[in-house]
Each structure stands twice: as C-alpha cells, then as structure tokens.
User: Fold this.
Amino acid sequence: SYAFWDANAGITHMIDNDNSLALNFYMGRDDLGITSRSIDSSETEVITRWGNILTSLNWYRKFSDDLHLNAILYYVRSNTKVDMIDDTWKMSDYSPSITDECKIDRSSSIMNESGVKTELDWIPSEYHHINAGAAYSGRIFDPQREYSKTILVNEVEKHSENASYSVRFNTSEVSVHASDEISLSNWFKTNLGLRYSCFINGGTPYHSIEPRAALRFQLAPVA
Assistant:
C-alpha cells in the first residue's frame, strides 16, 4: 500500500516598488506499507513513513537597477520512520501448543534545520556581474531505535525483551562566497569565484575553501 499528500501556500506583499516580502509554507507526507506471508505461518510487515515541513520568509530589496539584495529566513523539519514487524507461529509436534514469536524493530530519524541566507547581485558594467552572499544554518539530528521481542505460548507470555537507543547531534555551518561573471567578448565569458565554509560538529570546526572557475564559448549566434 502506498499513499502520499502534500500542501503548500504562499503570500507576497509588495511594500513598495523596490521592496517585497514573501512567506511560503510546504508540508508533505508519504506512507509505504509492505506485507509478506510465507507458507510456514510467518508474516513480515514493513511500514515506512517520511515527510517534510518547510517555511521561509523572503525579503527582496532593489537598491538600483544594477544592485539587488535577496535575504531568506527559513526552517526545515524532516522525519523518517521505519517499522519492521516479524511475526512467526510454530505448532509443537509433541504437545497441543502454539508458539508465537513477535519481533518489532522501530527506527526513526528527525532533522530540524533553521538558517538565514543573503545574496547580493551587482552589475557595475556590461562586462561584469558580481554575486556575493553569506549563510548560516543550525541543524539538530535525532536518530532513535526501539527493539522488542515477545514469545507467547498458547497466548501466555513466556519471554519478553526491550531495548532503545537514542542520540542527538548538533551542527552548524557558516559560509561566505563571491563570484564575478566576466564578459570578455560576445562569444567568450568566464565565471570566477571563491567560497569559504566552516562546519562545526561537536565543537570541532572543519574549514573548507572552494575555488570555482567556469568558461563559456559560444560557437554560433543564438537564434
């Protein structure tokens, strides 16, 4: 069996000709269930559920025809759950008894992320298009697992065991970037940029510098 649904909504408010605010919301969920039965009186059921929630507030500011600012404040929640149920029945050959062994293994993972992003576009001349920005995001990961096993003999519980595990990770990331699209001629353009990011996990920072370069050759005029 499979089912899903999603919903989204958005509203944009024009403050003036050079300012606007946009509020967006999205929510979706999927459910997948698989059941298998064998000839030896056993049944396995796997149920998977996952979904996302996203909301963002976008501010667009036009300073001039050549200078634009776009800032986004957002929140994202993502979750996944997997239930595996294994049920086995056994009938004794020597006594009128039925043994029912049921194992349930549940795993879930939840991620919450919030952050802010800014993008600045500047066109100082017809030969340059400069893009620069900065971003910050904080994430919380919550993976969990639960396990249980129950043995019934003629519907009377003879054995049971339970275990659960959970852990939490907190991470954050800060990044800045800048690039310049340079028009050297009508048929040749280049884009040069640099991005720096700092990823922090458990108080330990991990730094990264990413240079970027792209070349574009136009062999024929665009129709």
The radius of gyration is 28 Å. The longest strand covers residues 98-125. Residues 73 and 116 are 4 Å apart (CA to CA).
